[in-house]
């Protein structure tokens, strides 16, 4: 019965304002690589961990976030990850299987089989993709754009946080639907990425625009049919007057608001009435039944390089806190992944 080191990223205390690396501790613990007698749990070796903006909300003690499950000070963070099965008490999983789902930010995790979302069957693509394009962000982009956004050929699509894990895919899916697509991002490097690698028709750096309303009128003189909402706040307020009649706004995230003690108000909501706009929030977990259909759609595009995916890789669990905190200042370029182990 082998006792091994089990490095963990632990939340020190609930967070107020912007998170800092010091809000998390790297703890050197140990674990026994053996299932308890009679257990139907699954023992995992974690390989890749996903850094996602929603994780900030879980660092605060807030009512109403039961759908995610908030973090507990003194315990490891949890999130999406790619893992290898070391031992299983459940018939659906066996030693050596690769899986993705919810796991802890540590080297080895004992999880309930309900925390595993899918077994990984396609290994001709990078395993890290299952934290991104083939994992939760990919499903978020697919469900949010196609199921909630209901796109039609030739429509005008605006994507905020467009170079992020979800936004970069929404833009590419929109182009596959023959839509006109504009993205916003926070640096020249990201704007260049959107236009030159990801195939967006246009992109702009929102930090350089003093009047977002005028900017959107410049890029969308006929208005926006679909706004894929990732940031909220001032961007949402500027988008609303620029929406077309019967426009749709799938609400994926509002990252500009997560670190504020007092959220910003939105003043242009009356446009929802005048323009009969449908604005709908969604939780990706409600769409996981579509995962096989999603794989059928996206895997051929990946293999034919009709869809590309940009990752920002942080090596080592000890670099996890810096990688996660970097999301909220836009330090990452593309999907932020933490490598715990490569096999």
Automatic annotation (TrEMBL):
Transmembrane segments: none annotated. SUPFAM superfamilies: GroES-like, NAD(P)-binding Rossmann-fold domains. The keyword Oxidoreductase applies. Keywords: Oxidoreductase. GO terms for molecular function: oxidoreductase activity, acting on the CH-CH group of donors, NAD or NADP as acceptor. CDD domains: double_bond_reductase_like. This is Enoyl reductase (ER) domain-containing protein. Pfam families: ADH_N_2 (PF16884), ADH_zinc_N (PF00107). Residues 42-338 form the Enoyl reductase (ER) domain. Signal peptide: none annotated. The keyword Oxidoreductase applies.
